[in-house]
C-alpha cells in the first residue's frame, strides 16, 4: 500500500488492493454528497469526489487511485442503498499531494477537520460536534474484542492523544477527558506513559461496558453528572463526545495532510486470520475477508460494529465506510446456537440496564405489539447498549424486540421526544440521582 499508509504500529496493512472500491456519497447523518466526478474520470487517492451538502454532511474522498466506473445506488452497511461512486483501482496508486502544515491557528485546524471529512461513529461530522463546547470527552471505552468489535485506543494512543490536542485547539475546549473502561489496564498503562497535559485526564468508568452509539448522553452523565433531554446531544451541555478513530483521523489530517480515507477495522470470528487492519474506505467486505484468510466454511451472519448492538448485513458486497470499526462473522452453528428459551424471571436484564428499564417486560409487550404500553414503560429511553441481551441466560433477543417497539413508535408518533422528555430518567429534574 505504500509509505502513506504506514503510520500505525500495531495494525496490519493490506497486502493486496481490491479490484475496485465503492465509496458511498453518504457516510454521515446528513444529506448525501454531490458527486464531483463523472463516469470515466481518473481520480487520485485523497482527491475529493463528493461535496458536502448542508449540515450533517461531510465531504468524501477517493481512497485509491483509478477510474470512476459507475455512480449508482449500492448496498450500504446501514441496510439501505446509497448513491455511491465505484472506482476501478489502478496499479500506479498515485495520490494527491498531502500538505502537512505547521503552526496552525484555531480556525485553520477547524477548516482542515472539516475539509478532511472526519465523521463520528454516530454520523455527525466532527467539525460540527466541536462547535460551542467547553469539554471534550474522548470515548475510549471501545476495545478490540469480539463484542465491542473495533480497534481500541491501545493500538495508536500517541497519535490519538495528539489528535485530541488538535480538537481542543480547534474547539477552544478548556479540558478533555479520556473515558476508559475500568478493566482496560493496558490503556491506563499506555496513557500514563504519555505524560498528559494538565487539562487532559483519564477517567476510569466504574461500569465495565462500552458506551456505543446512542450512549453519548449517558457517557456525559456518568462522567460529569450533566443531564440532557431526550433528543438532545452532548453539545446542549457544552460537551463534545469524540471517538478514538475520528480523533486519530484528525491527527492524520493535520499532521499528514490526509483526508478521511483509511479506516482501522477489526475483523473477528469465522475467517482464517482475524486481525485489526487498516483498509481504504470503500473496500467491499468480501475483499476484506479474503485479505483476512477467507471465510471458514459458509458464513452464517455478518455483524458490523458490535456483536449485540451492531447491524447484521444481508450481503458481503457492502463497503467499509467511515463508521465501520469492527466486523464479526458468525458461522451457521454460532447463529443456530442462539435459540431463545422461555424467560426464567431472573431479573439479570434489569440489574444491568443503565437506564433502569424493565427489559423483559418491555420485550414481552413489544412481541405482543402493545407499543403504547411499551411507550408508557419508557421504551424510548433505551440507549441500545445490548447489555440486557448479553446478560439474558435464556438468550431472548431483548434488544431486538425493544428496537422493534422503538421503530414502531417513531413511525406512529411525530412527537416522541417531546412527549417522552417529561418522564426521562436522564434529564428529568424530578428524578435527581435516578440512575
Ligand atoms: S439495550 Fe437493554 S440494557 Fe441497554 S438500555 Fe436498552 S433495555 Fe437497557
Ligand atoms: S435476563 Fe432473560 S431470563 Fe432473566 S428476566 Fe431478563 S429476559 Fe427473563
Provide a descriptive summary of the structure in words.
The protein starts with 11 loop residues before the first strand and ends in a 14-residue tail after the last helix. By secondary structure, the chain is α/β, with parallel strands linked by helices. The chain has 14 helices and 17 strands. The strands form four sheets. The chain has a six-stranded mixed beta sheet. A four-stranded antiparallel beta sheet has the order 2-8-7-4, with no helix packed on it. Strands 11-10-9-12 form a four-stranded parallel beta sheet, with helices on both faces. The radius of gyration is 21 Å and the shape is globular. The chain folds into three domains: 169 residues, Ubiquitin-like (UB roll) (Roll); 151 residues, NADH-ubiquinone oxidoreductase 51kDa subunit (Rossmann fold, 3-Layer(aba) Sandwich), CATH 3.40.50.11540; 84 residues, no CATH class. The protein binds iron/sulfur cluster (2 copies).
What small molecules does this complex bind? iron/sulfur cluster
Write down the overall geometry: globular
| CATH fold topology of the largest domain | Ubiquitin-like (UB roll)
Helix content: 25-40%
Quick rundown:
The protein is an alpha/beta fold.
Quick tags:
435 residues, alpha/beta, Ubiquitin-like (UB roll), Rossmann fold, 3 domains, 6-stranded mixed sheet, 4-stranded antiparallel sheet, 14 helices, globular, disordered N terminus, disordered C terminus, binds iron/sulfur cluster
